[in-house]
Design a protein that fits this description.
422 residues; alpha+beta; Rossmann fold; Dna Ligase, domain 1; 9-stranded antiparallel sheet; 5-stranded parallel sheet; 20 strands
Length: 422
C-alpha cells in the first residue's frame, strides 16, 4: 500500500519538499494544500485542508503531513494517525508574534537585541521617532511574508514603511510593531531539528539574501548558500554559544512554555562584536534556504519526517540558489507579465523549483507577480574562487538568454559569498 505525503504550502519551498519526497518514495501519493498550478503536476491540490485529510485517510495508514509554510502552523494539532512534521499553533507564536518571541527570549536568557518599545498606531510610532535617536529596527508583530522588518533612519522612513506594510497586508494589518536596537555584524541562518525525544540537532548553516538589491528593503529571500561559513572572528566562541547557551536554553524554554514540536526551527543570527545574537525565529524551513538544504541531504527526508532520523548534510558540496522574481515584486504597482518560456521546462540544466505560476487552458504557464522560480546549482565546498565565479556566471547567462520580460534576479550573490568565505 502506497504511503501518503501531504504538504502544506504553495511555493518553491514546497516544490523542493515534494521533489525530495518523490525522489525517495517514487510510489508515494503526494497531495498539497493549497498547492499551485505547477504542483498539480506532482499530485492533487486541494481547496480545503479537510479534503486533503479525507483523501489521505482513504489512501492508507502510512500518512505524513509536512508543514512547509508558516501560514499552516497548527494544522496537525488535532490529527490522529498521522506523522505531523511542523509547528503547533502554540509554537507558531515564536514566528507569528515578534513581541511574544522577544519576551520569551528574554525570559530564558537567549541573547538578542534590546527592545526599545511597542507601538500600536502610526501616531505612537511618530511620537517614538520624536523621542528616540535613530537608527532603530521596526518589526511588524505578525506575518508579513518577509516584508515586515526595516532599519529606520528617519521619521519619513518610519512613516513610509508603516504605510507600505499597511498596504501590503490590507485588512490583516493590525498596526502593532516591535521597536528594538540595531545589531551590526555578519548574518547567518541556523537550522535546527526538533525531535519527539526532546533533542535539538544542528542541521545546517545557510547564508541568505533578503532584499531585491543589496542594502534594499526586505522582500523575501532572493538567494541562499548552504553550507555557509561561521565568521572567522566568531569561530572561537561558536561551539560554546551553540552547546552551552543556545541549545540548552531552547530546550528548557520550549518545554516549559509548551512550545515543543517535531520539525525545523530556523534561528536568524547576527554575529556581533559581543558574540552571536538571535534576530528571529521561524518555525519551518526558510525559502529559498530549503532549496539549498534538501539537495544536500545525505539521508532520506522520509526517515527524518517519519522516524525522527537525524538530518545529515553533505558538507563537501555547497548549493547556491538564485531566485527569479518579477520586477514589481515587493512594490505597490503591478506590471503585465507574460508566459514562462518553454526552454525553462525542456532545456533548463539546473534544479528549478516553481512558485508563482498560473496554468492556462492551453497548458502554458502565466507568470504571476512575486517570486517565480528558484534555480539551484552546486560546486565543491573547497573550490577556488574563480571556479565558483564561473559556475554562477554560467547560470546567470542562461537566465538572461532564456528570461521573460520584467524578470529580476540578483547578480552579486556569489561575490558576497566569496567575500565572507575569505
Amino acid at each position: 500500500m502506497a504511503a501518503f505525503v501531504g504538504i502544506l504550502g504553495s511555493g518553491s519551498r514546497e516544490h523542493a519538499l515534494a521533489w525530495r519526497m518523490k525522489q525517495e518514495q517514487p510510489d508515494a501519493v503526494l497531495s498539497f494544500y493549497p498547492g499551485n498550478d505547477f504542483l498539480s503536476n506532482l499530485g492533487l491540490c486541494f481547496d480545503t485542508f479537510d479534503d486533503l485529510v479525507k483523501y489521505g485517510e482513504s489512501v492508507g495508514p502510512e500518512r505524513v503531513l509536512i508543514c512547509g509554510s508558516e501560514a499552516y502552523a497548527g494544522f496537525g494539532d488535532d490529527l490522529e494517525g498521522w506523522s505531523f512534521w511542523g509547528p503547533s499553533a502554540e509554537a507558531a507564536q515564536l514566528e507569528h508574534s515578534k513581541m511574544f518571541a522577544k519576551e520569551w527570549m528574554q525570559s530564558y536568557g537567549i541573547p538578542t537585541a534590546q527592545p526599545i518599545g511597542v507601538v500600536r498606531s502610526k501616531e505612537e510610532l511618530l511620537t517614538l521617532c520624536d523621542e528616540h535617536s535613530f537608527p532603530f529596527v521596526l518589526k511588524y508583530d505578525g506575518l508579513a511574508a518577509g516584508k515586515g522588518v526595516s532599519i529606520i533612519h528617519s521619521r519619513p522612513e518610519a512613516d513610509a514603511f508603516y504605510d507600505q506594510v499597511d498596504k501590503n497586508l490590507g485588512p490583516d494589518f493590525t498596526g502593532a510593531f516591535l521597536v528594538e536596537t540595531v545589531l551590526s555584524g555578519v548574518e547567518r541562518s541556523l537550522f535546527l531539528q526538533l525531535n519527539d525525544d526532546g533533542d535539538i540537532l544542528p542541521v545546517a548553516f545557510s547564508m541568505d539574501f533578503k532584499g531585491k538589491v543589496a542594502g534594499g528593503i526586505n522582500t523575501g529571500g532572493m538567494g541562499a548558500f548552504t553550507p555557509a561559513s561561521i565568521p572567522k572572528q566568531s569561530q572561537a566562541v561558536w561551539d560554546s554559544f551553540l552547546n552551552d547557551v543556545l541549545i540548552p536554553r531552547l530546550k528548557i524554554g520550549l518545554k516549559e512554555a509548551g512550545l515543543w514540536y517535531r520539525g525545523i526551527l530556523y534561528v536568524g543570527l547576527m554575529f556581533t562584536d559581543r558574540g552571536p545574537q538571535v534576530l528571529e525565529f521561524n518555525v519551518r524551513f526558510g525559502d529559498p534556504e530549503a532549496q539549498t538544504i534538501l539537495p544536500a541531504l545525505k539521508n532520506k527526508l522520509w526517515d527524518v519526517v517519519r522516524h525522527d532520523e537525524s538530518m545529515a548534510i553533505d558538507s563537501t558540496q555547497t548549493y547556491g540558489a538564485i531566485v527569479c522574481a518579477t520586477t514589481d515584486y515587493g512594490e505597490a504597482d503591478t506590471k503585465e507579465h507574460g508566459l514562462i518560456p518553454l526552454p525553462w521546462f525542456s532545456e533548463c540544466p539546473y534544479l528549478c523549483f516553481w512558485g508563482n505560476l498560473f496554468k492556462r487552458e492551453d497548458n502554458r504557464y502565466q507568470i504571476k507577480k512575486g517570486r517565480v522560480a528558484t534555480l539551484v546549482y552546486h560546486f565543491p565546498s573547497d573550490a577556488a574562487n574563480e571556479v565558483i565565479e564561473a559556475v554562477e556566471k554560467e547560470l546567470l547567462s542562461w537566465v538572461d538568454a532564456n528570461g521573460w520580460p520584467h524578470l529580476h534576479r540578483r547578480d552579486d550573490l556569489g561575490n558576497i559569498y566569496l567575500d565572507e568565505r575569505d
